[in-house]
Amino acid sequence: MSVDLEPGVIRKLDEVVVNRIAAGEIIQRPANALKELLENSLDAQSSHIQVQVKAGGLKLLQIQDNGTGIRREDLAIVCERFTTSKLARFEDLAQIATFGFRGEALASISHVAHLSIQTKTAKEKCGYKATYADGKLQGHPKPCAGNQGTIICIEDLFYNMPQRRQALRSPAEEFQRLSDVLARYAVHNPRVGFTLRKQGEAQPALRTPVSSSRSENIRIIYGSAISKELLEFSHRDEVFKFEANCLITQVNYSAKKSHMLLFINQRLVESPALKTAVDSVYATYLPRGHHPFIYMSLTLPPQNLDVNVHPTKHEVHFLYQDEIVERLKQQVEARLLGSNSTRTFYKQLRLPGAPNLDETQSGDKTQRIYPKEMVRTDANEQKLDKFLAPLTKTDSGVSSSSSQEALPLPEESFRVTAAKKSREVRLSSVLDMRQRVERQCSVQLRSTLKNLVFVGCVDERRALFQHETHLYLCNTRSFSEELFYQRLIYQFQNCSEITMNPPLPVKELLMLSLDSEAAGWTSEDGDKTDLSVSAAEILLKKAPIMREYFGLRISEEGQLESLPSLIPQHRPNVAHLPVYMLRLATEVDWEQEARCFETFCRETARFYSQIVWGEGSAAGHPRWTIEHVLFPAFKKYLLPPPRLKDQIYELTNLPTLYKVFERC
User: Fold this and answer.
1) How far is it, in rounded angstroms, from Cα 487 to Cα 566?
2) Where in the cell is it found (predicted)?
């Protein structure tokens, strides 16, 4: 049976309905109204702002300031939609420097509350008071006495929207939201004095003095426990054109409630990506479920910021968001690394006759730590080598030959000479390489490396280490290559030198390399002697660059006199030196500056990361070098990029092993 389906009639909504829908998007609760009016007062250059509240802002929300006031001529349209003194053309959004610009705040409030405005400018002899309903002025402004500034009174918020009113929290919770908004603006605007008072109470709930400081306002509002642990720093980035001023708590402080105050171009906003990034850094230091106190103020070029993406303006979009978040995360991590040495721990003395702590907590099952969750923290415990390497007889008894704690004897042909004077690097290509390394650093992987416990070597390429309750196998050569690459970048122009005694002839080294299988020489490539002479000429021509920037010296007579020293107690494997010299001549792009430095560092890092396995090798004891030189350098210097995650493999973990044992 067919049924005739009639289409609905499309009607134009009444203007009152449209305005109330728009008002509900902007004014969602009393705290939104307070935020809008606080920003208007700050735009009016106020030095003191007083807020009075009744019933959490639902019965009364009054904001009084001593700013410039509103002209009498403007009172007629001040509550109409899209009336503003801050914007004339759409293109002005690209340069907007004030809080308000759309002209919707007062209009929205007038559609959902009873609104009155009392104002006086400096030029007028008296003030004027006006009342509004649904965006329209009721009657004419009436003259009245008053001081310079504006008093905006909002009564019976959402009186005509009972569903919205019923959905709000209790007056106490709404007042707490109002207090939180005012506190954030008080911290960010220390030159302005703020006062929050409940109607009928003599003492204010919150008060900050005029011309204070951010740290002082934090102490007044949030307490001395936070203020005494604050760490202040600023960062200016020329690449992404932003400036950051931050106050963050050191690792001694933590709380279960998260406090992050974020302002971008003076606007109070939220950024889940930035909050997640900062929390991931603090997760290394703070107990699970605990959070820091963070204040951040970012200043970006106005043309890079889009402020018109959310009705309440609590969200903004800006260019290079991911890169800026990553850069800020690195800055926070760098500051926390320096503050970690100041951590304070407290202990309680047990009175005579008092039971042991373990006895008093034995009944609390939630605090119990199971064996599968216990982490070995003593790095001096037995290593893998003790179970794999043969034991040798020494004067002091039986020991493992491959786990000696004494330093290997240095080769007589190597002598390290420190750089004479530290020089500032100003080449943009090198600075860009450093910034790329820092931007790509994986915080999670860096945290793992900083807290690892070395277990043992498998071979020249692989080693085992423990992190918490997990056992990992890592590609030592890949990590070493990235480490040496980064050390060359950060020691650019300031490399210590490993002096070759006696110097080695470059042409003979090149001939040796052409005779090796690694060079891949064929008869089609030409005569080996001609090739070695040609390669030697390239190296002699580029010798000043290598000497000036990297500490690799080749004399005018073609003698290799020194190599760069990148980490203490490390010597490159001279068995691979001939191939390294050949690759410097053939694989380095000597024509373009940035490519030259990049390819030279990569080739050098590849050479330095090669280890000859076997005791008594030319490079010293490889097991000792990996454990006592390379792995400590990983923990101290390496900023691992995400691609190194593919070079780590989790072999097992304690919870998994316990499950296997339980089945057995």
Assistant:
1) 6
2) Nucleus
